[in-house]
Amino acid sequence: MTPDLNSRPRLAPGCRLNDAKQQPRVLLMPEKALRLMGPSLEIVERCDGQHTVRQIITELQRIYDKADPQKVETDILGYLSLLNDQRALDFVDADASVGGSVA
Questions:
Q1: What's the CA gap between 73 and 38, in Å, rounded?
Q2: Which residue(s) pair with 21 in the sheet?
Q3: pLDDT tens per residue across span 41-80
Q4: In CATH, which of 4.10.910.10, 1.10.10.1150, 3.30.365.10, 1.10.10.60 is domain 8-92?
Q5: What is d(CA 62, CA 66) in angstroms, rounded to the nearest whole number?
Q6: Rounded-to-integer distance, Cα 37 and Cα 94, Å
Q7: Alpha helix stretches (DSSP H) within the chain
Q8: Nearest-5° angle of CA 57, CA 59, CA 62?
Q9: Domain residue ranges of the chain, discontinuous segments joined by +
Q10: Which of 6, 26, 94, 97 has the fewest CB atoms found within 10 Å of its own CB?
Q11: What is the spatial order of strands in the sheet that 25-29 belongs to?
């Protein structure tokens, strides 16, 4: 599933980032954990239900300005899709109410 650029990704119920003071940063999911570094951490930190997929892509293209912008976009979309497949992430439809989500 390719995320809609206007949707707002957020961590799924039961998933959370460990405290920012703890290193390494870890995405805690039911029955597993995923260590986050570099771009993966930058992406997950922005999955707050406020940023759109498009905003996340734009911000990371600015941060990683030496990389090909199309590759950055493709990588982010792939990573968001992977997190969604692992049930770590939900997408709030831009047109839906705050409680609605798109699977």
A1: 15
A2: none
A3: 999 999 999 999 999 999 999 999 999 999 999 999 999 9
A4: 1.10.10.1150
A5: 9
A6: 28
A7: 38-45, 53-63, 69-85
A8: 110
A9: 8-92
A10: 97
A11: 16-17, 25-29, 32-36
Q: Taking Cα atoms as reference points, which of 36, 22, 23, 18 lies closest to residue 82?
A: 36
* Six token digits for residue 63: 């941060």
CB 1 within 8 A of CB 89: no
Q: Which amino acid is at 20?
A: A
* End-to-end Cα separation, the chain, in angstroms: 9
| Rounded to 5°, angle at Cα 80 from 90 and 76 | 150
- Tell me if the bond preceding 24 is cis, omega within 30° of 0: yes
Give 2's pLDDT tier (boundaries 50, 70, 90): confident
- pTM for this prediction: 0.86
Asked if 89 and 83 touch (Cβ cutoff 8 Å), the reply is: yes
| Cα–Cα distance measured from residue 28 to residue 16, given in angstroms and rounded to the nearest whole number | 5
